[in-house]
Amino acid sequence: MPTRPLGANSKLVTARRTLGLHSQAGFADAFEEHALAMGMRLAVSVRQVRRWESTDPPFPTPDYQRVLEDFFGRPLSALGFSATDAACEEPMGRAWRTFITDGPERLHRLMRLEAGTATVRCYQTMFIPGQLQTADYALAIILMHDPALSMAEARERQQLRMERAQRLFRGGRPAWFIIAESALYQPVGSPEVLAGQLDHLMQVVSEHPHVRVQVLPSGAQFTASTPCLILEPQRGRYAAWLEQFAGSLLIDRPDDVEHFGATFDRLHTSALSQMASHSAIAGWQQELCGSIEFSANLVGSSPATPEMTIASKLRSSALPWASGTAKYPDPQ
Q1: Residues 295 and 173 occupy one common structural domain
Q2: C-alpha to C-alpha distance for 175 and 118, rounded to whole angstroms
Q3: What's the predicted TM-score (pTM) here?
Q4: Which domain holds residue 166?
Q5: What strand order describes the sheet that includes 248-251?
Q6: Same domain, residue pair 84 and 117
Q7: Does residue 331 fall inside a structural domain?
Q8: Residue 245 pLDDT > 50
Q9: Mean pLDDT of the 172-187 span
Q10: Cα(308)–Cα(295) distance, integer angstroms
Q11: Residue 284, class by beta-carbon neighbours within 10 Å (0-12 exposed, 13-18 middle, 19+ buried)?
């Protein structure tokens, strides 16, 4: 019986098979178990294993490098990885730019960074930030960005986003979000999904005082073209996480991160106060519910239809600041 040809990265394939791991899925499972034994919660997908075994394998990030070398008992150079990009994978405090492309790996890496961060600052241009998303809104975003995903893969990423949100709410660490006004109007999924998302956003800022939300209005004196997340993994040391079309860029060079911090400060001064931001969100949520209700009536739906029920429920649950009767925190 002929043997299957080795992958392009024959060194890694040979090392894997030497350990009796004859499938990429088996290696992925063994990798995760070994990482856990080393005290790290790391997962690797079959797709990532396939990329490691490709003609030009991407150089693993530091945590993955540690597990791979410990797992096989040999350096990465003996596993077919080129050290060309190793300078981009240095410890925090030195020039560090990591481009992370695999979807699940990106989310796990981000969640590990967030787990130890002291503060969170986020600016989002087109969508509601991931940690503030509802399950329906998150799923719509995931499928919009990658329509080729299977529903099982999309649900897996959706669950990770919900875990990120729960960590934010449980942790109590200061979190500051600035959202471009256009994100409030983008009907991701459907108008009903957006209405539910806005209602959730108002509930979050009402029930979690450590979460601060401001809206950057259209026509503001200062804006930024790309979203950015600024974390504080070590007290007084910051990292910037930038979402790119083909992956995510993690930056920890102090001069670069300082630039993002200064940009966030200027966005803050250009944004509406917290009170005005909350009123803007509540006002648009009520207007959107009215539009949903009007559309349902226009096509002959009765008040008992699901669309009407959703609109009525969302409208009745609007928070007190929609009517101007609530007490607000200090604007800035």
Answers
A1: yes
A2: 9
A3: 0.62
A4: 90-322
A5: 97-100, 248-251, 237-243, 228-234, 120-124, 175-180, 211-216
A6: no
A7: no
A8: yes
A9: 92
A10: 9
A11: middle
